[in-house]
Structure formats: structure tokens, C-alpha cells
Amino acid sequence: MMLRGCQKQMIVLQTPESGVFESAFFVLRRENLSVGHDDMIAEANRIIGNGVGVRRRVRHLPERLLIFLLGVALGVGVFALICFLRQI
Asked: Which of 2, 6, 21, 26 is in Cβ range 3.0-4.6 Å of 11 for a Cys bridge?
């Protein structure tokens, strides 16, 4: 990541309780420099809080098995159709 310009202001949040992240960096917009320090920290915590719940969806075994069986059935159907068309 490259910061452009001569002067940027940023907030660094240290997260010692996290087992994944050590710190988070937020680069401030130039047009919102009149916002108070507490408001900036609250907004940074809100952004972090919204991102915590994002997790990859895990498919359960029955769903995976159903998808596999549908794929096998489709493959057998295509193979049977090709064999039938070759005999005509």
C-alpha cells in the first residue's frame, strides 16, 4: 500500500486481545479533519466490529453428498445418452 501526498493523518489501533491481528491502521480523509478524536476512534471500532462477523460459509456433509450424487447422476445420464445416440 502506498500513501500519496506529503501529509496523511492516521489512527493506529493496537489489538493485544486478538490472536490474529496486532494492530489496525486507518488513514483519515482530508475533508473530515474537523471530526473529534473520540468520534474517529468510535468509527474505527464500528468498522472493525462490522468486519468481525465475516466468515466463510461451511457446507455440511449432507449438502456435499447431495451435490456429489447429483453430479454422478448427471454424468451417468450424459454417458447413457451418448451410448444411445451412437447406436442409432
From this structure: 26
